[in-house]
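ligand=pyridoxal-5'-phosphate
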Amino acid sequence: MKLSRRITEQPPYLFAEIDRARDAAKARGLDVVSMGIADPDLPPPEWLFDLLSEEIRRPGYHRYPDYRGLPEFLRAVTGWMEERFSVGQLDPQSEVITLLGGKEGVAHVAWALCDPGDVALIPEPAYPVYNTNCVYAGAEVYFLGLTRENDFLPALGSVPEEVARRASVIYVNYPNNPTGACAPREFYPDLLDFARKYDIAVLADNPYTEIYFDELDRPRSILEFPGAKEICLEFHSFSKTFNMTGWRIGWAVGNAKLVNALLTVKSNVDSGQFHAIQMALARALSHPERDSFLAANRRRIKARRDEVAAVLDSMGIWHPNPQATLYFWCRLPEGYDDDVRFASELLEKEGFVVGPGSAYGPHGKGYFRLSLTTSEEDIRKGLSKLKHFLGR
Ligand SMILES: Cc1ncc(COP(=O)(O)O)c(C=O)c1O
């Protein structure tokens, strides 16, 4: 049986590999703790369950969903965007579409915008889904390294003219997975100028807008910047906002032509999200306890962040202090240079799962990622396993 080159020429999906190694370690009897995968351990708000159980009883909701999304959902998310960010007015009928989670959106958009021979500009280390799907769509990927020296921002001026001219898309993701970096306000006008100059669609992946630790410097939407709607599509998700990665719901918002192109791909691939889930989330966005839930969630993650930062510092492990996201991007301790080997030995010997940096792209070499989506008890256990492993 022949498998396509999409399957045979791609490395296995990182997180599926991590799961496999973790399960093998457990099967050997190790007490395994994971800070490798970003899947919140904290629950969604209790009232969201009530909303879903009310909506699930509506008879009309059990048929195929609308492709673009339930109008109530589209109005609710555009309303949220207008309230939370300074984006001006958005048209729920043409400038937004429901997604089966952000992952589905950032994957399918490559199919909508990339042809063989096009270049896809991908700052890395990055969420691996951008690269894989641009390659699936036949595009040539040009990586822009995010490093400590460039504050984890892509050096747009370093893209050769010939490459920029062939580029059809650039992905950006701030607050960033895996580095935890945020982009300063000044970054966006430069990015938009660059994209306009070469007629490149900007794909802003933005699932961490509500996981921030500084009330005075909250993550932005790219749509806040003048002219962004002409060339940008932004991807949002409820997965991390409400601790509901299993529900699979998000939205893409921005340029109507880009939204429509994504809708065309999606309507040939999936049939939209269950209306009861869309309606529960539409109502969640105007729920009186929305903000108190979000604030409490942030406080809990911030306390974890502070504790992890202190322990890493005590071990002499270099890391930026994340102002948003769920991630610590850690430089390998002295004496280590192979992150994949580091991560697999840490798992084999101690039963502690971390994400090897180079799995997120070539500039991830020499780093590992820790995710704050594990209970406080397991975080402490995991970090003491790390200490033991390093003999510190
Ligand atoms: C940068 C980034 N984009 C998108 C996603 C996908 O999130 P979801 O598909 O759960 O909305 C993730 C999940 O970890 C992510 O880190």
